[in-house]
Amino acid sequence: MPDPTHSAPAPFAVRYINAARRDELARDPHTLALIGFADAPWLSADDTCNFDLVLPQLAGTPLCEHWSSPTPVERIARDGLRIARNDDILFASLQLPADDIRSSAHAIYDRILELLDDSAYPHLLRVWNYFPRILDVEDGLERYQSFCVGRYHALEMLGEFEAALPAASALGSHGGPLNVYLLAAREPGIQIENPRQISAFRYPPRYSPRSPSFARALLKRWPERDHLYISGTASIVGHESRHATLLPQLEEILTNIDALIGEAHTRHGLSIRSIAELDLLKVYLREPALLEPVRDALETRLPAGAAARIYLHATVCRSDLLMEIEGLSQGTGRTLKESAAAVK
């Protein structure tokens, strides 16, 4: 078991690295996780958190998401769970068949809560959820709605349900299982909600019989750095989708992300003030043809060297939404130079 007295500026870092380095980094004792973006699902044969999501990368040198720890990590594989932890945080990933998405979502979140209850890391900070056919209708509900029902019925067992919800993303993949991975910690973070939006956990029932169970963002204070985990963010104001075309949706997304950052800055003293100061962006696009206009617009909008970006082919959870963006601030300023060096 790691020593809980250890302290570092932050207990982990995330960057996009050249996928050619994946095998090398999988052997590194400081690696928490490696996440690839491919045309087919894949899970390493050993006990590492090393897997591919069926979210094809749309452009550029093939990248991999690398989570690293300043200290060696402990790795555990049990009952389908892959766990990597250090003194301060726990990373876990797990997969279940995606056929009955409501039952699988309930089961997978039950497993997550059992894991947290049995560990020294009881507080969810950030969760990612991916599964295929997210907008297909089965038994009268879209699969995303069924997923929300299953997730809700597991998470409602949390004490102070709404206050305990993490930042999260849920996207449609192009195959494979229900794939969930998460970050948990010994102490909770601070929920950040968007003043331009109704909190997702208070949406009216027209969106799902049970509300989407996540916070818009979560601020986590580490000993010397603040992290901001921004959930998947779409062109939504209040609770309604806005704009039928791509670039106005992108502008609304950027306004929403800036609103979240502004809320964290004003209310909690986060040092950054705008999307240009984030370290990483993950951009989900419904169709590959959307890549060029979105990439061009972001390159125009953001200063050179701002926010390392990866573009992925994924389905957003509403049929009228063309894209979604999530973000991460690691309290380190701009990391594009580091990512560019890693790609070379």
UniProtKB/TrEMBL annotation:
Signal peptide residues on this chain, from the entry's feature table: none
Xref: Gene3D superfamilies: RutC-like
Domain Chorismatase FkbO/Hyg5-like N-terminal: 65-184
Pfam families: FkbO_Hyg5-like_N
Domain of life according to the entry: Bacteria
This protein's name: Chorismatase FkbO/Hyg5-like N-terminal domain-containing protein
Organism the protein comes from: Acidihalobacter ferrooxydans
